[in-house]
Amino acid sequence: MSSDDGATATTGGTPVAAAGGTPILELRDLRKSFGRTEIIRGASLAVQPGERVAIIGPNGAGKSTLFNLISGRFAPTSGEVLLRGQRVSGLKPFQINRLGLSRSFQVSNLFTRLSVFENVRCAVLWSMGHRYAFWRFLADLKDANERTEEVLHMIRLELRRDVLAMNLTYAEQRALEIGITIAGGAEVVLLDEPTAGMSRSETARFVDLIREITVGKTLLTVEHDMGVVFGLADKIAVLVYGEVIAFDTPDKVRADARVQEAYLGATPAENGAPAH
């Protein structure tokens, strides 16, 4: 797909890109096989600083695998991932995190027996250069504690600061996980199905929260709720059978014949209306 604003989508190794300078995150002909099964088949994508990008696709398209490749949980079979022009594919997740990319997961991954405050502070400590020392009291780390309070305010959990993570509601646990994700000041944030399992009202509030706390950051999210996708994303990348077949604004992606065929098995003319 191509459009008059310079966004393009291709297969075969040429990055899908939007006009506007050096990408903050770039995938180049990324491939991942498990045995003889190829899951990611030459995915290419170029994301500009500050863009909010939703990655969508049918079940089995490879969305979670793609996130695992970007964040370092999987090493690619071939191809590369670049962060601000630096190759990061093959690095450990913690190394990629220290370079400015952080990720949440589909299932909440919290220290359930620590308080909300303590969970966020754990994420803050390393990013601020604090290391383990048995003679140092955490209460004395003013900078870390102040940053933790800032994050709690951002995710609207300051009044729940002393509650154990295990006693939070599901929506609060998801908010806490996002707080942990952004606590280190990452420039690129990956959210994997952040609104899964939420009610309609919880989802609406959560989308507002994500929009607020990612101001000035680059956001990639995997999301199945198309209301969330079209309400949050500046650009949508469509992944089908391990390839990015479209990358453009929500309206242009919604009208793309290949996207409709991938989701509905028919062209727009056959369906008689745009896909939603």
Task: Give an account of the 3D structure.
The chain is α/β, with parallel strands linked by helices and 276 residues long. 33% of the residues lie in helices and 21% in strands. The chain contains 10 helices and 10 strands. It has helices spanning 63-71, 93-98, 116-127, 142-154, 170-183, 200-213, 226-232, 250-254, 257-264, 268-271; strands spanning 25-34, 37-47, 52-56, 78-83, 86-87, 101-103, 188-192, 218-222, 235-240, 243-248. A hairpin with a 2-residue loop joins strand 4 and strand 5 (86-87). Helix 3 packs parallel to helix 5 (170-183). The longest helix has 14 residues, at 170-183. 42% of the residues are buried.
Features:
6-stranded mixed β-sheet; alpha/beta; 276 residues; disordered N terminus
Question: What is the strand and helix layout of this fold?
Answer:
Elements: E1 25-34, E2 37-47, E3 52-56, H1 63-71, E4 78-83, E5 86-87, H2 93-98, E6 101-103, H3 116-127, H4 142-154, H5 170-183, E7 188-192, H6 200-213, E8 218-222, H7 226-232, E9 235-240, E10 243-248, H8 250-254, H9 257-264, H10 268-271
Helix pairs in contact: 3-4, 3-5, 4-5, 5-6
